[in-house]
Prior knowledge:
Number of helices of chain A: 40
Oligomer: heterodimer
Strand order of the largest sheet of chain B: 5-12-4-13-14-3-15
Helix content of chain A: 40-55%
Bound molecules: iron/sulfur cluster
Number of strands of chain B: 21
Radius of gyration of chain A: 40 Å
Strand order of the largest sheet of chain A: 15-16-14-17-21-11-23-22
Structural class of chain A: alpha/beta
Distance between the termini of chain B: 85 Å
Helix content of chain B: 40-55%
Amino acid sequence: MSTTLSDSPARERAATAGDRNIVVTAGAGTGKTTLLVNRLLHLLLHRAEPLAVGDIVALTFTNKAADEMKLRLRTRLNELPANDLAAKALHELEKSQIGTIHSFAAHLLRLYPIESRVDPGFQQDEGRQFDEFFQQEWAVWLDQELGSAAAHEEIWRAALSSVTLEELQELARGFVGELIPLDEDLDVQLGLNGMSPSISDWLLRQAHIAMELRQSHPKINTLERLLEDAATYLERAARQDRCIVSGSWDREVPPLTKQWSRDDHEQAKRIVRVAQAVATVRLDLLQPIVQLIVPFARECRRRFVHTGYISFDGLVARARNLLRDHPLIRRELKRQFRSILVDEFQDTDPAQYEMILYLAEAPDAEVSDWRKITLEPGKLFIVGDPKQSIYAFRRADMEAYDTVVEDHILAQAPPGECHTLQTNFRSHAGLLTCINAFFSRIFPEQAIKGIQPRHDPLLSRDHQASLPGEEVEIRLVRPDVTDADAETAGRAEAEELARWLSEEVFNREEMYEHGVPVKIKPAHVAILFRTLTDMRDYLEALRRYQIPCLTEGEKHFYERQEVIDAINLLRAAVDAHDRLALVGMLRSSLGAMPDVQIETLSRHHLLDYRIARMPDSLDPQAQTAYHAVQPIYALLRDLSSELPGLPLTEVMDTLLSKAPLLELAAASIDGEQAVANVLKLRDLAVQLAKQSVLTLRGLVAELTRRVLDVPDEAESSLAEDLDGDGQGFVRLLSIHKAKGLEFPVVILAGLQRGTNRVPSRIMVHHDWSTGIVGIKAGELQTLGGVYVTAKLEERRRAEQSRVLYVAMTRAKRRLILSAGITRHIAPDSFLAMVAQGFGIDLDSLGADAQTTRLPIGSGTIVLKVIPGKTVPLHANRRERAEWQDLEHDDVAVVRARWGERFRRQQEISRCPPLLSPTFLKGTKSRIVTVRRSRSDGPRSEVASLIGTLAHRILEQWDFADDPTKLIDLAEIMCAAIDAKYIHEYNSIRSSVKEILEVFIKSEIFQILREAIIVGREVPFAIPWSTSESQHSVMEGIIDLVYRLNGDIWVADYKTDHITGEEIGDRAEEYQLQAQIYTEAVSKCLGVRPKGFQFIFLRTGTVVPVLS
Amino acid sequence: EQRFDRDDLASEAETYAVRSAFLQRQSRILYYGFYDVTQVQLDLFHTVVRHYPTTLFFPMVKGNPAYGFAERFFERHLFGLVGQAPQSPGTAIFPGPGHDDGLLRSGQSCRMLSMSGPVDELTVVAKDILTLVEERGYGFEDIGVVARTLTGYTTLLPRIFDQHAIPFTSTMTRPLSEFPLAKACIQLLDLRVSGFRRDRVIELLSSPFLRLSPVCPSNVTPRHNVWDVATRRLGIIKGMDEWTRLTRYLKKDLPLRDDDDGELVGPRISCEHIQHLWTAVSALASSLQSVPDSGTWEDYSEHVQRLCDEWLDGHAGGLDGQADDSHQLLESVAQALVELRRLSAIHREVTLVDFTAAFHRIMEETLVPITSSRAGGVQVFDAMAARGVAFRALYILGLNEKVFPRHIREDAFLRDRTRRFLEVDLGFKIQEKLAGYDEEKLLFTLLCRSAREQLTLLYQRTDEAGRSLLPSGYLAEVQRTVGAGEQVVPRRLTVKFENTPQYHLDRLTPSEMATKFLLMRRVPRRLLEEGYEAGRVVARGLPALSSLDGTEQRLGAYDGITGPLESAWQTMQLSGASPTALQEYATCPFRYFAKQVLRLRPLTVPESIDQIGPAELGTLAHSILRRCLQALSTEGYFSHVAPSIDPLDRLEQVAQAEFERFAGSHPVGYPLVWRLHQERLLTVLRDALREDLAEMAREGWEPVLFEEEMHGRLNAPLSGMPAELAEILITGRLDRVDWSRSQNAYRIIDYKFKTSRNPDTLDKNLLMGAARATRLQPPLYLTMTEALRTRMPGGSTETTCHGVWFYYLAPAWDPSLRQASFPGNAWSSSITPSILQAVTHVLNGIHSGRFFIYASGSCDRCDYRLLCRKSHQPTVWRARLDHALVSPYRALRSAPSPKADTSPVTGSTE
Ligand code: SF4
């Protein structure tokens, strides 16, 4: 680590401090992963008492971050000179708890499955299992509830008059989420037992603000009057008196007037709305609905865990409960984990804070309320940046963050230490100056607890000069239409952006890379968007300019033509009546039918691929169409007969091998991307097919549902997620996805767009700090619902500045802020924020192209206004590559090569490396064993059991022994037969005895009594070559080898009912077996047997085969 | 019934070991493959060692950490048995301190490959194997492909190796439940559980393994597709009650559509098909009826076996060679059932649902070997099975973190600290779970050494989605000690084709080869025509593709530009065009083509319907009101013959009858919700009727025609429309026509049922709708005035048309009955040019065959969105930029509201 950094002491102390809990605020690009790895190395190697890998928990926000940390740790350990501690750490790294909080929670649950009430072999559910499960449960429940014997009819009537069935379903889903506490008394959450103090405080505060606002606006107009009423009402409401005071309630807040500033007006509006919402709280209507749904939700949760899956929320909730409710376990784990590191603390779900607090608690007390926990000094090390907290939608909670950091870590004795990393290793000084100046205007000077952190400027590491253009540039595109909305302006902006990059930037302008100037390439550039929905127009424009693009997080997979084509084909093949699918397929490049021919087919009732013979008396036009479509109909017929018999996992492959979807995708305009998408579809279908419940039609229905509903699914990515490597593409991604990444050139596009948020009609949200569950269903909500909604709304507003902060701090060399100019600038757009932070008056911009340099702080930025076109001139800028026929298209060679390969495969497959006499018998003489049919099943099974028994008895039998004992032995062996043959026991026993009795009396038996028995049931394995393979091994078991008069004989027992002629028939087969056995005995004993005998036990006859 | 596990056997054997005649006969006993034994097995071993001369072959290199696991075992459990230090002939690949020689076996080469995702991993291996065999003289059987576990490869490997014609033998298995035949067994039982859900019945009936011959006469092929359509048509969801709807059509054919009258027109399904379906379903039902709701495991197993015997055909299976497999599968199912019987030992009674779940589960857990019919070739094993097998060349797959070494967890029920205590302090051989990591390492070491000549280590750099994955820690170690180079197989196909040796042309399958050239914009014409079957389809598709992806700004033959469709036009001239059909053209010309020209209709999915949809509610509302008014009219309510009739009573009666009729042949969703819908609808209708009647009484109107099929013609000379367009016959069914004797006028009423929260502009402004051609009923109804006049009770040449009125039945609007009107003189007023233009545009478009797409808000619910290519960029651009064709249309769609002589809207919301 460079010692010249101004924050070096902080870094050093943070990495090595052992006696205090540490909070590190690491601004963007300040090297927090390095710090974390340094801290880990310190703990493992340099600490006074080094820790073992297993003593440490290191938690990250994503798997990717965990992987990176592990990889870097491994590399650093590997690089160290040989050292026992390092070797030990390396050796134990597999066992480390470096991972996400979810994987850690799962680890805890698996260690204590009984206490956590989970199946120890549970699997984590990414959401899909639960979705399916919930759908099913919901359907079953509705069947009961809404069936003919509906038990709660009145409640349902009331419920369905205010919310739809879908909304109720959403509400139920909300309650099933495991982080919603359902154990407590519902009445409390509904507010039936009085108002929570947090809510009444809040109402009073709102009343107070309303009053202040009112007083600062002395004129009395509608808004002022509304505010006054709101204040009075809220105050009374806080005292639990919710009778309406005056009649002017449900009035809309009047629009902004001169007397009001925009901010004040917004705030007034919010307060009036709060008051209005409080006034409409109707618990009498909501309560029955909640009481109906909650038991369902409880049951649904319970049953889901029984399926062996746990959701992500479930992992955290259960691990938290485990730690909270089982002091002994907590104590044990506290002892085990001696150091806890947490990354991205600001984006962590508060339930996870709770877990961390329990684990970091001082040794000897296990308190059950996290608020009362005392921490063990030196155990906790957290890294985060509240300015980069942008995951409120995943329940990141600034209020909780501040509570834990300030009230627990920093306030307890001995107080924790807070270090701030400010040296930025990413951006050059020119950029940082402007970014600092900008955010000093956006963030407050002092942190607002629970809402917004204060601004800490980033310090640059060096003062390397920058090239022209390596700066902050604002590009405003003025569309060629008046009163453009954000979308229209966006189209013009996208078009201009693509043009600019392709004509002016790529391969023309330069930037520094590793200290040397290089031409800017697509791989250097990332375009960031606030939401993914904005991305599409830009992508199209860039593609039109032939700029290679890679999108991350776009979700249009199911809208891709090649995907729709493939699914249409499958639908048509599976359901011959699905004419929509058939026509869709015919219109694709695979069907290749022009619409006029499709019309002809339709008119002649020929839109049916089962028609394999041309009907008589077709007019010439119809005949042409019929002939044109036949190859495809033949293909469909083929598929439709084959697919239903295949395992589902093979369906998609068969489809791809019979129908050249891949080749056609390759030939399409998006060539490689289209191929990748078809392959991805195949993989997705295989994944689906693995669910054992699914059938072919089910699979088709599911895929159809997907192309119709277009669920989020990304196209197959042509590039890999390897850090910092653009792989030749311009990257398009959301700001959230860009978090933690850096790019040489960053373009923030579509800044003119507002958030356009439509508030959800359904909400179940647990507010961690107060424990209040906000509930909202359509027009109905609890007071908690009003409170939580307002709180979330406030947080969301504050978060927008942080999203912009994350976005603007991604650039290493160049930052471009791009927007289309709209008629009205949306107040919640980034453009409005950018204008405010850089002090630009958007209304005063001229209509013509212009370039200005604006000073900001000690730097300058460039502001450009550029005219843009909303309708592009060209449909497609891509030059269509010249299609040519391939010159050396030597098909004969290809055919011969693959013909030979398949022939070889066939041959080898026919001939296994391990042979057995029976196998050879099968191939040589083609005697196909007659399979037993089901009706005569038991009989033949019994027959073979008898044969086996006879063999086993003779294996045990010492021929020298008294022959009568053979029958005793038979008794014993028969007694041990499987219970399932118990009913046939008597007949089996008598058959076996009968066989043996005949055998005892036979001549051969007498001979064997005289002979020296060399082996019974002798296994052998010898090298064996056949015409197909030189390297096979023959294996088998020889029933009997004996020596008589100095000669070795080999024998095989047969228990078949067989006649003399049949023996003759099987001569060839017998000959082969004799040959193999004789060969084996010669090889193993080194003596050539005199001969080979078949001993037919049932008759006592011997059939010799002489060698 | 006594059951033994392996340990029981070992412990039983121990008691016999000392006096075993067999053992006594042996001159020496050799043990090998020996380090993961249990205490009981160890006891047996000890006994044998004590009594007989024994040699143990044990993998260990003293002091080498890779063998640490073996060494520890040796020291704890074996050391006392041997007098001297063991002999050690081997060397290690990871030498410990002091072992710096012999990293690999002599002559062994080692390399590393990384790629993206398992498909690439296996493809590269397959292509590499082809090189080994064809260029370097390896036999397939000399080559091993090993992964720690083959689980992730079971579907991929057979497919990829087959594509590359690589024979292989393997220990891989797949669950029985993956096979359609096995699924059919489950489905069969499941019918009983699911109450004969329609989709499941049809699915089962379409299984090639179902034995339908007993129920279908031999000369009839079962037509499950027809059955599917028929049952959808009848709105069957589940329950034998609903299935009996089939019996209505045993003698008469089933029509595919019903009109509002409940009268049945259009194409029909022959009753013969329905008969067969009914026979099949009722046979299944009676066969399943004997399966009780609860019973013993034996009972159920027997029932299922019986069902399988009765219904499943082990000799079926469409393909050659499948019949054998099918038979085997049925055997496996039977075995699984035998297993299930054994559960009786635990508890006797189970419910059918539980049994089905257990049956399902055992089918998942019963594994069937994948290579049943194969044998020779490359040896594909998991690492455990590969122990002790030697290869000339070995590929180790999936060297990724948490895969190899596998991810090991402590045993929650016997924690490692307890295990350690048991083993170290009490001397009982039991392994600490986390010590498994050492075992993994040993496994890896032995595996590496089992390759005589060539060792290839593969890991997935990223997964199939391109997300990065961590390599196994072993690789870093190998790299450090051996310094093996890494070949990076790129993710992108084009790059692979360009510079990855494994993707050399010689090793590309014909399909890959074609893909490669097509990506390079070269057409391998001969390869496509003669190289392989599917190639011809590519060759056939290429010209179409070049039009589909064309960059010209001209809509073409694949974009719905059909040119004049003479026959279609003639048909329309004959049978007439309805305003609703024509306005479809204005919504989206392609949609018109799909719906009106090709007459495509989506298949309904009764199962997915949990409540009646808005369209059906609308139809219901319509027919109830009409029937009610008709009844009132017939009974003389309007002519004041029968003033005592309570119209609301009548409404109720009619509604009840209609609801019942509807529910008899349509899915209506949950009963309670259906009831609520009925009530709400009735409320809306009641209000509407009350106001309607009051208004009629007040203004002197009397309804005289209901649902009247009428014809009209555009008045060509007057309109100035091209003659061939003007000749078109306009047909329409008028909801209701009112007559006012006093005004000598009539008016046309059309009901519109609306579920939206608020009316939109076009609902309010019918003139604008007409000018944009999206609401064509009002202007086109007015072409029927001549015919209507003659139908009025006192109609004369003086009779005038008062206008067309839309009556909105809109529960959410306020007030719920809203009307909008269209002036009766529209064809001879200031608005005539706008509506004339609109109608002309539509007719002209249809006549000249211009059916391009026009994507708009209505796409979201459009039935044709999977066949119009509206998300295909080149198509979209053509449809946006072919200005000559599209601009006039776009202008039509944004036409302003014409200024009328009369006020268009009453009861305005403003
Ligand atoms: S989806 Fe849209 S573009 Fe396609 S046919 Fe339907 S309305 Fe037309």
